[in-house]
Amino acid sequence: MNVSPDIDSTTAERVGLDPGALRRLSSRIEQDVNDGRYLGASILLARSGVVGYRDNIGQVAPGRAAAADDVYLLMSLSKAFTAVLVLRAIDHGRFTLDTRISEILPAFGAGGKQRVTVRHLLTHTAGTYAGFPPPPPLTMAKDVGDLAANVRLISLLPAANTPGERVVYNPFASYAVLGQVLVDTDPDGRSFGTIARQDLFEPLGMTDTSYGLAVNAPRRVPVSVPATDGAVVSGAMMEILNQAFTEESEHPAGGAFGTVEDVYRFAEALRRCGDTGEYRVISQSLFHYACRNHTGDRSNGFWDFDRQARDLPDFPANFSLLGGYVRGDGHYLSALGHTASPRAFGAVGGGSTLWMVDPDRDLTFVFLSARFLEGLDHFKRLQQLSDLALAAAVD
Description:
The protein is about 35% helix and about 10% strand.
């Protein structure tokens, strides 16, 4: 296992990061690696747009030490990219948050989904198909990256509840539909992957980020899962994830790949309210509206079984319009940490990834891991790591 690098105290202190707290953050991750909870990880912390700390810990595969240029499957962090592209399209007048999806994709307006809007899909309140893999007869192994085929079948399925009635995190379908909305309204007739590359990744300098990646790409990090009793997510499912997302895949909800540096570039653009100084991703007005809590005090029904099985109290969903979460007020489970300011926002990728921005502290934290930690265990891990990262921020 890699040993934490010597911390450049001058750089860390110059940007307002406490070297001792940074060591504790890396040590916590190293301990989890030693305990077999997950393999390697890459982390980055910055304040006010200046990177003050990086670390690459453990191994991302047997005999392969974690490295700064590792390309991870970002899982549901991908939703944040899709969400920002949707907001950008709204800024350009192609549709609104209240546009019904059936106005753009007429086949979608069936089975109780006639009133589903763009905002419903962004906030997991649409009641759409809730499965993790594509709807049958499509399969994860062969069809997860076929955006048009997935949306055609999703459109035929009935809503599970009245749109807007419940908050239930949607792993796959809602953001697939949003990806197709972007394609069908694009004035240049581009594919989803091309839209993401030209309108987001390239302008932000995210040179190693893409939807889909060659399976044999040399810097691609394989996803693994701990061999634990009672696990719902099997090693076989992880192997499918390692083989199904190819360079031809377009999976807006979970199929993006990127490095810790690229995820930081994206998060930094949002810390700056959607404007890098050279490129405006979205307008400030829409950004400030989007990074509010758009689900009130309602809980996320997706976690009911896991929460009850672990005897955990209920906690609010706190979904933003940015493909992730807002911290909000109160003491409850949050991947963004107990100590984050109420305005903190970020996104979580299933079992393995996080980016978080605390605007009150001008702090950005990115965590990418090579091993899938299941369910709310991942949220509990992220809560501790976010709090350790926040503890490093000093005035």
